[in-house]
Here is the input.
Amino acid sequence: QVQLVESGGGLVQAGGSLRLSCAASGRTFSSYVMGWFRQTPGNEREFVAAISGSGGSTYFLDSVKGRSTISRDNAKNTVYLQMNSLKPEDTAVYYCAAGVFPIWNMGLIRERKNYSYWGQGTQVTVSS
Here is the structure.
């Protein structure tokens, strides 16, 4: 069982930055691919970014690529999502998720159904 707790959300002006954190429980954190998803009211939860267990591979939604970085500290059981040049359309509840994947396959990694554990979410609001 893995428990995930997000933090770092808030209100920021367009063009600003935020760093989201997700702290995980458990002793096998490095065996999980960690993903970030976001959801707005009335819409499905969409993939934002993911990082492999070692941290050596990352994958981003096209609309955040170049503006965001994802990293992890396996010693601290924590994954981070740094978002820069934020836009109002980035406003959403952001969730972190953990999943086990046999291979690093982007088609699998961007599907929320493939993640077993989820945090409670943290609100990000970007004002124009």
Remarks:
- DSSP finds one helix and eleven strands in the chain.
- The longest strand covers residues 92-99.
- The CA atoms of residues 95 and 121 lie 4 Å apart.
